[in-house]
Design goal:
- The structure is a single chain.
- This protein has 403 residues and is an alpha/beta fold.
- A hairpin with a 4-residue loop joins β11 and β12.
- The chain is globular, with a radius of gyration of 21 Å.
- The structure holds pyridoxal-5'-phosphate.
- The site of pyridoxal-5'-phosphate has 16 residues, from α5.
Length: 403
C-alpha cells in the first residue's frame, strides 16, 4: 500500500484544512455495501452506527440507488419557483405513511426542527390567539434537535451551547419522561411541546411506559401542539414506522429527516394536518433545495419501502435478538443497556474504559460504533444487518470489555 493512500496520511492531509468540529474514529472509509464498509486499505468493518440512523436501509440499497440514478439522469433541481413532477408523488406518499394531510419538505434535520418551531409559533398566533411574540415551546432536558443557534439555545448540553449565544427566547425546559412536569409548564402562551419520543444523542433514553400517551392527552386537553422529533427514532429504527407508534400515539407534527434521504442525500420534512401545517402561506417559508426532484425521488422510494412494513418487522425481530445479546453483558463491563427495536444505548463501566476507548478497541476488531456522553456507546446497525452479524459484533464487544 503506497504512503499516499494510507489511512494516517489521508487523515493528516484532511486535518490540515478541515475545521475540527468532529473527532472521528481513525478509519478512512472508501466503500460501503449493506451493513459493511471497507477502508482505504481494504479492511472491512460492520457499521453499527448507520450515520446516526440515516442509513437505516444500509449502504447502497439497490432499490434506492436505482431511484436516484434514474432521477439523476432526468432532473435534479428546479427550486420551488417551478413545479417538478416528483414532489407531488413524494408528498402524497409521505402524508399517507404519516396519516396526515400535508408535507413541508426541507433538507437537514435541523431545518425540519426550525420549520416545526415556525409552524408552532404561527399556529399559536393565528389559531390559538397568543399575543404577538409571546409564544413559548416546552422542550425536554437532555434534548438534541440539531445545531442551529435557535436549537442549541434550548439545549442543556454545555458543549453544544456554551459560547454561541445570545439565544432566541421562548423555550421552557422540563425533565424528560415526566408528563406531569409538562402539564405544569403549560400556560396560555404555550404553543407546543417538542420532544424526541426516544432521546437518541442523549444515549437512547427511553421514557417510562405511558409517557407518550400522557403527553398526547395533555397536549389535546390543554390546546397545545405535540411535535415529535422522529428524525433519528423514526422510519423503522425502533421496529415500528415511528417511535410514537409504540404507544399508539399520533403527534400533531412529525419532524423527519436522516433515513428519509435513503443514505444518499439530506431529505427532511415536517408532516401535519392542514389545520396546523396549513397556517404557513406562500412566501412565508422556504428552501432552495427543499423538495428538489432528486430528493423527492429518493424520499418516495424510501416511503414505498416502509409501506410494506418489512423493515419495521425486521428491526423488531433483530432488536429482540440484540437485546438478549446485550443484556448478557450487564455486569461484565456494562452497567446498563437500553434497547428499542434495533437501537441500543450501552453504558460502559468506567473501570473498563470510556465509550471512546471501547469504540477504538472495537474499530481494531472490525466493528464501528460511536460513543456519546462519555460512557455510552450507541448501537444502530443498518436494518439489513443479519442476526449472525450481530452475534459476531456483540462477541467482539464482549472480548474488548474483558480487556
Ligand atoms: C440528527 C438529529 C437532528 C438534526 O439533524 P441534522 O440533519 O444533523 O441537522 C435533529 N433531531 C434529532 C432527534 C436528531 O437525531
Amino acid at each position: 500500500m503506497s504512503l499516499d493512500t494510507s489511512a494516517l496520511r489521508i487523515i493528516a492531509d484532511e486535518n490540515r484544512h478541515l475545521a475540527h468540529n468532529y473527532h472521528p474514529l481513525p478509519v478512512v472509509i472508501a466503500r460501503g455495501d449493506g451493513a459493511w464498509v471497507t477502508d482505504v486499505e481494504g479492511k472491512r468493518y460492520l457499521d453499527l452506527l448507520s450515520a446516526y440512523s440515516a442509513l437505516n436501509f444500509g449502504h447502497g440499497h439497490p432499490a434506492i440507488l436505482a431511484a436516484a440514478r434514474e432521477q439523476l439522469e432526468r432532473l435534479t433541481l428546479t427550486s420551488r419557483a417551478y413545479h417538478n413532477d416528483r414532489l407531488g408523488p413524494f408528498a402524497t406518499a409521505l402524508a399517507r405513511l404519516c396519516g396526515k394531510d400535508l408535507v413541508l419538505p426541507m433538507n437537514t434535520g435541523a431545518e425540519a426542527v426550525e420549520t416545526g418551531i415556525k409552524v408552532a409559533r404561527a399556529w399559536g398566533y393565528r389559531v390559538k390567539g397568543i399575543a404577538p411574540d409571546a409564544a413559548t415551546i416546552v422542550v425536554a432536558d437532555g434534548n438534541f434537535h440539531g445545531r442551529t443557534t435557535t436549537i442549541v439555545g434550548f439545549s442543556d448540553d454545555p458543549q453544544s451551547r456554551d459560547g454561541f449565544g445570545p439565544f432566541a427566547p421562548g423555550f421552557v425546559h422540563v425533565p424528560f419522561g415526566d408528563a406531569d412536569a409538562i402539564d405544569a409548564a403549560i400556560d396560555a402562551n404555550t404553543a407546543a411541546v417538542l420532544i424526541e419520543p426516544i432521546q437518541g444523542e442523549a444515549g437512547v433514553i427511553i421514557p417510562p411506559d405511558g409517557y407518550l400517551a400522557a403527553v398526547r392527552e395533555i397536549c389535546t386537553r390543554r390546546g397545545v401542539l405535540f411535535i415529535a422529533d422522529e428524525i433519528q427514532s423514526g422510519l423503522g429504527r425502533v421496529g415500528t414506522t415511528f417511535a410514537c407508534d409504540r404507544e399508539g400515539v399520533v403527534p400533531d407534527l412529525y419532524l423527519l429527516g436522516k433515513a428519509l434521504g435513503g443514505g444518499i442525500l439530506p431529505v427532511s420534512a415536517v408532516v401535519g394536518d392542514a389545520a396546523v401545517l396549513g397556517v404557513i402561506g406562500a412566501g412565508e417559508h422556504g428552501s432552495t433545495f427543499g423538495g428538489n426532484p432528486l430528493a423527492a425521488a429518493v424520499g418516495l422510494r424510501v416511503v414505498e419501502m416502509l409501506e410494506t412494513g418489512e423493515f419495521q418487522a425486521r428491526a423488531a425481530a433483530l432488536g429482540e435478538h440484540l437485546a438478549v445479546l446485550l443484556d448478557a453483558l450487564v455486569g461484565h463491563g456494562v452497567t446498563a443497556v437500553r434497547v428499542a427495536g434495533l437501537w441500543a444505548g450501552v453504558d460502559i463501566d468506567s473501570a473498563v474504559g470510556t465509550g471512546r476507548e471501547i469504540a477504538e478497541r472495537l474499530l481494531a476488531r472490525g466493528v464501528l460504533v460511536k460513543d456519546t456522553h462519555g460512557q455510552t456507546i450507541r448501537i444502530a446497525p443498518p436494518i439489513v444487518v443479519r442476526a449472525t452479524e450481530l452475534d459476531w459484533a456483540v462477541e467482539q464487544l464482549r472480548v474488548v470489555l474483558a480487556g
